[in-house]
Amino acid sequence: MYILVLCIVCASFFIFPTFFTTLYEPLQPSHAVNHLLFEMISIFVAMSIAIHSWITYGEAKAHFPILLAAAFFSVGILDTFHALTFSGMPLFFIESSSLTSTWFWILARLTESAILALVFLTPTITSRLNRNITFAIATVYSIILIAFIFVFHQDLPLLILEGTPTLFKNSLELITVFLHLFVIFHCLKHANKFNSIVIRNLYIIGAFSMVLSSIFFVRYQSVDAYLNMAGHLFKIIGYSMFFIVLFTVSVKAPFKNITRLHDRNRMMFNMLELGIIETNAKGAIHYVNMSAKELLQLPANSTEILLMSQFESKATIGEIYEEITSYTGEKIPVEIDRFPLIESKKIIGYFYTLRDLREAIENERLAKEKSVTDFEIETAAAVQKDFYSEISSGDQIGFVSYPFKRLNGDFYNILKQGSKTMVTIADISGKGIPAAIQTSLMIGAIEHVNLHHEKPDQFVEFINRMFSKYSKSEHFMTLFTMIYDEETRMLQYCSAGHEPSLLYNKGTNTFNFLETKGAAIGFFKEASYETKTIQLSKDDIVVLYTDGLIEDRGNLEGDLFEDMMDSIRHSDLTLSADTLSKHLITEVEKKRQGLIHDDRTVIVLKT
Question: Which residues cross the membrane (predicted)?
Fold first, then answer.
C-alpha cells in the first residue's frame, strides 16, 4: 500500500511536469536555501540513526546492525559537506561548486547503499562487529574521503555538466538503484527471517524510496529544477524509514515487551491465593491483586486512593496471629510480610504479602475436634473389643466380624445357659459413637435374658421398647435372634427386619430361609414380633449374616446372595464352625466386584 502511494507520487512528478514546474517556480530563486533545509533534515535523520544506535547498542544490536548505523554516521558527515560545498554557499575551505558538492553526494549514496546491501548479504558477520571499532573506522573512512576530495577535486571526473548529470554520474546513481533493489528482493525472498513483518516492510519502503530518489537525480535537467528537490524529499523518506526501524527495535519493541511482561506478571499475581499489595514509600497503595482485593473487601472499580495504614491493625489474636481491618471494618487474621523496594540505595516503596488465616484457624479448630472425636472412638472401640473378647467360638458355633471403619456397626452375641444357646446378630444404623452406645444397650439387655422362660419374640419386643426409649428417632436396627436346644435340636428364631438366615441341609443339599414378620427395631415404640420353631437334623448348618457381606455395588445383580449359598454348598462342612465362618467370608469376598462400604459379620451354627 505504501509502495503504491510512493509510485503514484513519483509518477505524478513526471506526468505533470508543467504543474510542478509552475508550483516550484516561486521557490527557485532561493533554491540554495531550500536545498540546505532539505539536507539539514537528511543529516539530522542520518545522525539520529547513528547516535540512537550508539546509545541503545545493548538493546538494538541483535536487530539493527551497528555497521549500518556507522554507515549513516559517515553518510551524515558526507551529506554535511555536500550541503556546505553546494553552489551558492559561502567559502568553506574551498570554493563551493557543483563538482565538489556532487562528489560528496554520490559518495554518501554509494556508502549507504553498499553497506545496506552488505548487511543483508552477510548478516551473521556484520552482527558480530564491535561498536567502538566500527564507528572509529567509519570516522577514519569519512575523513579520508573528505581530504581526498578537497585535495584532488579538480582532477576528479565531472559529475555535472552545464547543470545536467553526466553519464558517469548517472551510472553511479544506477549502481545505488541496483543495490537497493537487491535489498528489496532479499527482504521479499527471506521474509521468514524477520521477527516482524512491519520491520521487513519498513526496510522495503526505505530502500524503494531511495530507488525513487536516484531516479529523480538521473532524470533532472538542472540542479535547481523541482525534480532535484523531489529527489531530496524521497531521500528523507528513505532515511526516515530506516530510523523508524531502529526506533521500533530499540525503543518500541522493548517497551512493548516490558508491557507484555508486566501484564503477564499481573495475571500471574491474580492467579495466586496469596494476597499481594504494592505501595509507594509513603504507604499509598499502587497495586492490589485479586486475592488481596477479596481479603480487604475492596469495592469494585474504586478510584479512591487508599493507604496501607487504613488496613493495618496492632491487635493480635492470642499473640499468635496478626490482624488487618478490611474496607468494611471486619477484622481478619492474616500472616503478613513486608519487603522494601530499593532503588539506588533508596526505599521507593513496599511489597506486602497477605495470607488469609481464617481457613487455617478453622482447620486447626476442626483438627482439635477430630482429635477429641478420635479419642472417643478409640475409647468406644476399646469397649467393643473388651465385650467381644468375652465371646468364644468353637466347633459348634463360630463367628467372624470385620468393621468397615474403626468402630463396628454390626452387633453379635452368643449366650449359653445349660443346653440352650441364644445367638443374636444385628446391624445398627449409623456408625461410630452412636453404634457403640447402642451396643452397650444390647449387652445390658442380653444379660437379663432367661433362655428357659423367654421366647425370641419376647426378647425382641423388649429390645425394641428399650431402643425406642433411649435412641433418637432417626436410628434403627435390624436384628435376628435364635435359641438353639442342643438336646432336642429344636431351633426357635425371630427376625426384626433383618436379612433371612440360611439353614442348609447337607443330606438334601437344600436351603431354608429363616425369616419372620416384624419391623426393624426402633421404627415403632410398640411393635409385635413372632417366634417360629423348626426341628434341625444332624449336620445341619445355620448361617447368620449382615447385609454388608452380600452387598456389592459393582455387581450388576446387586448382591452376592447366590454366591454365598454356592460357597456354603462347596465348603468342607467337616471343618469347625469357627474355621467354616472364616472360610465362608473369604470365599464370598473373592466374588466381590465393587468396593466394600459396610461392616461384615457371619455366624455359623453346626448341629
Answer: 36-57, 64-83, 103-121, 133-152, 172-189, 201-220, 232-251
